[in-house]
Design goal:
Layout (H helix, E strand, L loop, with lengths): L4 H19 L1 E14 L2 E14 L2 E13 L3 E7 L4 E8 L2 E8 L2 H7 L11 E7 L2 E7 L13 E4 L5 E3 L2
Antiparallel strand pairs: 1-2, 2-3, 3-4, 5-6, 6-7, 7-8, 8-9, 9-10
């Protein structure tokens, strides 16, 4: 069977579209922890979550992030009930997403925090080969500290690396 030049161009276009759509899919689950000493005090970081994205469609989103010290701890979570929105981006061979909240003040109020404090929350997800880099900017969702910890997850081995 021979293809006309027009049919060949159409077949190549469909193939490129399928490859692009596949590159914009993410199916990641992780569970990470790390114990450190910071300023002479033992700290424990613990994170678990799931990000399942198909382009700009969020199929599943859940992330729990904790930071414990000897005298106190902080704990925050985000999930689909917070009204997340995803924006898919593609930068060459890397796929990335920007997740924001439709109404961050309402999500914060729903959690019992009624004072205003930098009412934004975004999470950048960047896939580079087998590594998923999770870069949050969420000072407002669960309290007064930066609520989520920046980390990288190897999607094949499950190994995590917390950013310093």
């Amino acid at each position: 069977m021979t293809m006309t030049p027009r049919a060949l161009v159409l077949a190549l276009t469909l193939s490129a579209t399928s490859a692009s759509a596949l590159a914009q899919q993410l199916n990641a689950r992780f569970s990470c922890s790390d114990a450190r000493t910071e300023a002479g005090e033992k700290t424990i970081y613990a994170d678990s979550g799931e990000f399942r994205l198909n382009g700009s469609k969020i199929e599943a989103l859940r992330w729990e992030s904790s930071l414990f010290r000897s005298t106190h701890g902080f704990d925050c979570s985000i999930d689909q009930s917070d009204g997340p929105l995803a924006e898919a981006r593609e930068d060459g061979s890397n796929a990335s997403w920007r997740i924001s909240l439709k109404d961050a003040p309402a999500a914060r109020f729903q959690r019992g925090f009624d004072f205003g404090r930098r009412l934004n929350c975004t999470i950048r997800l960047e896939r580079d080969g087998d590594t998923l880099n999770v870069k949050p900017t969420c000072p407002a969702l669960c309290g007064s500290r930066e609520n989520f910890t920046e980390l990288s997850v190897n999607l094949k081995t499950g190994q995590c690396r917390y950013e310093e």
